[in-house]
TrEMBL record:
GO terms for molecular function: GTP binding; GTPase activity; translation elongation factor activity. The lineage of its organism: Bacteria, Bacillati, Actinomycetota, Actinomycetes, Streptosporangiales. PROSITE patterns: G_TR_2. Gene3D superfamilies: 3.30.230.10, 3.30.70.240, Elongation Factor G (Translational Gtpase), domain 3, P-loop containing nucleotide triphosphate hydrolases, Translation factors. One of its GO terms (biological process) is ribosome disassembly. SUPFAM superfamilies: EF-G C-terminal domain-like, P-loop containing nucleoside triphosphate hydrolases, Ribosomal protein S5 domain 2-like, Translation proteins. This is Elongation factor G-like protein. InterPro entries: EF-G-like_DII, EFG_II, EFG_III, EFG_III/V, EFG_IV, EFG_V, EFG_V-like, P-loop_NTPase. Signal peptide: none annotated.
């Protein structure tokens, strides 16, 4: 899996590796829109990756599935899908731009799941490239265990070749082909310094305790022994070799590391597996002859082919025409209902960008594409029908940017529901909300770029035009004081009339008090059977609101007097009287608009804590405190009105240069300031 910030050169590196192995004739260019992994029409237009893409190649008889991941924070869902499907991560860092905060966050994500990692410094032939400085930054930011395997040889801004620190050979690329020779004497000091650090780092991770003693005594250590120990250290996630790459330089060395230094699928820990009741299942390994356990890591919808599921096979073997059990659990809050169904596998293909090449099987450790699994969604488990299993879902980030939309025309409205259903099935980071209070359709997205891609797909792929509208935050109403009011519903126009009079006392309750209805009728002035009718009418009016159309909360209503008629009184008559009494009360005493207040927990680098706290205060927020989290990061807690944070996902990313994250939890309702309440009432 290739990981790194946008513009670091991941897609370009994939092209170089595919060309170096003969998978493609010549590398494409992002600027020309002809790369293998950026084939989506959105990616071609925007010239950046927004999807997880697979690019398989074969080197020395070993198949490698390259996973090109987006480098923009909005598409972290595809990054985490890649983490689940991959056996190792290759961090791509530009020699001209260095390491940014987002790359550091991605490194920490990989560290949390124990993902083996290596680093490749790209663009070493760029005019602003500084390999030594970027290497030092990587060692400082990524911590211990980062050491180079190769050093670039650059003369007058031109990359002539690479020096292998383990082999002590100079790989010359000056003629366009790789040739091997001894490095010149002028590189001896540089080689000795970096080689010593590299060997010591490898030996410290070795299980052979005698190696360090032999090395310190000056005994030569066989290169094969060092490579074997390097592979074990990388597989444990405790050592991180650094390579370098430029135009026409470094692809062979990188392929050698992938085939000799990266762990195989057999060494990759198996995710937690249970049966459908939740009982853990032990003993399943990456065995083609074992029980089938596979996972849908990405779903796409093609208007011509239909639904395509990208599947990582963890155990067993997938074959065309076999029937599998599809299980999806735990994402009901994102619009993915729990489901357990049996489906038949159709054609199996090996994806190379947009090309789909038919294959006879998908064995354990491989990644394949399955077409037309009608019920399978991203994150679902495929297993044997006779022994259905479930893999623990990977953690998906919460979408925190709400975007309200509406169909542009009646024709678009008819197609919108189906199109959104397909987008939700593809993308677990998208949440769809049909807000009953505000009567708005809301897409909860990861950020502005995520929103743009979703709306683009609605228009271009599904033919549905929508427009963004102002988001309405659901408010509440309450009474500002205590008063008494009468509801009179008397209508006698011939035939069966209506007669109901009720006297109510209303008063506000503390925040969170809800609704209380108190019966203080004495002497039967309101017959017992009609007292619940009054309450029902009051509740109905509270749901509709009395001022701005928002539900009313935190009110105590006391029924203390009234009148009835032996013939014309009825359940409906007293319901209407209760509604009229509540409206009358609203005309006698002030009413307040209440706004929802959330608790925010903002995790940000120490450098941005001051800016974040100042910004939260400017949003009418109350900062509750801060606490250090790990090294160089701080958690800021605050209470902030929801009206002020509808676009906070965008603003925080801008303030923190893409490194800040936050969570939000509803706390309570509080009175809206009078100046804002006036604006809201006028707008409604």
């Amino acid at each position: 899996m290739l990981v790194g910030h946008s513009g670091a050169g991941k897609t370009t590196l994939v092209e170089q590796l595919l060309a170096a192995t003969g998978t493609i004739q010549r590398p494409g260019r992002v600027e020309d829109g002809n790369t293998v992994s950026d084939f989506d029409e959105v990616e071609v237009r925007q010239q950046r990756s927004v999807n997880l893409a697979v690019a398989p190649l074969v080197h020395n008889g070993i198949k490698i599935n390259l996973l090109d991941t987006p480098g923009y924070a909005d598409f972290v869902g595809d990054l985490r899908a890649g983490l689940r499907a991959a056996d190792a991560a290759l961090f791509v860092v530009s020699a001209s731009d260095g390491v940014d905060g987002l790359t550091q966050m991605l490194w920490e994500e990989c560290s949390q799941v124990g993902m083996p990692r290596a680093v490749v410094i790209t663009k070493i032939d760029h005019q602003r490239a500084d390999f030594d400085e970027v290497l030092a930054t990587c060692q400082d930011v990524f911590g211990d265990g980062v050491a180079p395997l190769y050093l670039p040889v650059i003369t007058n801004g031109h990359v002539n070749g690479l020096i292998g620190l383990l082999t002590q050979k100079f790989y010359n690329y000056a003629t366009g082909e790789r040739t091997e020779k001894e490095p010149g004497a002028e590189y001896e000091a540089q080689i000795e310094e970096h080689r010593g650090t590299l060997i010591e780092g490898i030996i410290q991770e070795s299980e052979d305790e005698s190696l360090m003693e032999r090395y310190l005594e000056g005994d030569p250590i066989d290169t094969k022994v060092l490579i074997d120990d390097l592979e074990k250290a990388v597989a444990r996630g405790s050592f991180y070799p650094v390579l370098c790459s430029g135009i026409g330089v470094g692809a062979q060395e990188l392929l050698e590391l992938m085939t000799q230094g990266f762990p195989s699928p057999l060494e990759h820990p198996m995710p937690e597996i249970t049966d459908l009741s939740g009982k853990p299942i032990k003993g399943i390994t990456c065995d083609p002859d074992g029980p089938l356990v596979a996972e849908v890591v990405k779903t796409t919808s093609d208007p011509y082919v239909g639904r395509i599921s990208l599947v990582r096979v963890f155990s067993g073997t997938l074959r065309p025409d076999m029937t599998v059990h599809v299980s999806g659990h735990g994402l009901a809050d994102r619009g993915h209902e729990d489901h357990d169904v049996d489906e038949r596998i159709g054609t199996l293909t090996c994806p190379l960008g947009k090309q789909q090449r038919n294959i006879a099987k998908g064995a354990a450790g491989d990644i394949v594409a399955v077409a037309k699994l009608s019920r399978a969604e991203t994150g679902d488990t495929l297993s044997e029908v006779e022994h259905p299993l479930l893999m623990t879902s990977w953690v998906m980030p919460d979408p925190l940017l709400p975007v309200a939309i509406r169909a542009r025309s009646k024709a678009d409205e008819d197609k919108l529901s189906q199109a959104l259903g397909r987008l939700v099935a593809e993308d677990p980071t998208l949440r769809l909300e049909n807000n009953a209070e505000t009567r708005q359709l809301v897409l909860w997205c990861m950020g502005e770029a995520h929103t743009d891609v979703l709306l683009d797909r609605l228009a271009k792929r599904h033919g549905v035009e929508v427009e963004r509208i102002d988001l309405r935050v659901p408010l509440r109403e309450t009474f500002g004081g205590k008063c008494q009011a009468m509801g009179r519903n008397v209508k006698q126009t011939g035939g069966h009339g209506q007669y109901a009079i009720c006297h109510l006392e209303v008063e506000p309750l503390p925040s969170g008090g809800g609704f209380e209805f108190v019966d203080k009728i004495v002497g039967g002035v309101v017959p017992r059977q009609f007292i619940p009718s009054v309450e029902k009418g009051v509740r109905a009016q509270m749901e509709r609101g009395v001022v701005a159309g928002y539900p009313m909360v935190d009110v105590r209503v006391t029924l203390y007097d009234g009148k009835a008629h032996s013939v014309d009184s009825s359940d409906m008559a007293f319901q209407i009287a209760g509604q009229l009494a509540l409206k009358e009360a609203a005309s006698k005493v002030s009413t307040l608009l209440l706004e929802p207040v959330d608790e925010l927990a903002v995790l940000v680098a120490d450098d941005y804590v001051g800016s974040v706290m100042s910004d939260l205060s400017s949003r009418r927020g109350r900062v509750l405190g801060t606490e250090p989290v790990g090294t160089g990061r701080t958690l800021v807690k605050a209470e902030v009105p929801e009206l002020e944070i509808t676009r906070y996902a965008i603003d925080l990313r801008s303030m923190s240069h893409g490194t800040g994250t936050f969570t939000r939890t509803f706390l309570r309702y509080e009175p809206l300031p009078p100046n804002l309440a006036t604006k809201v009432t006028a707008a409604d």
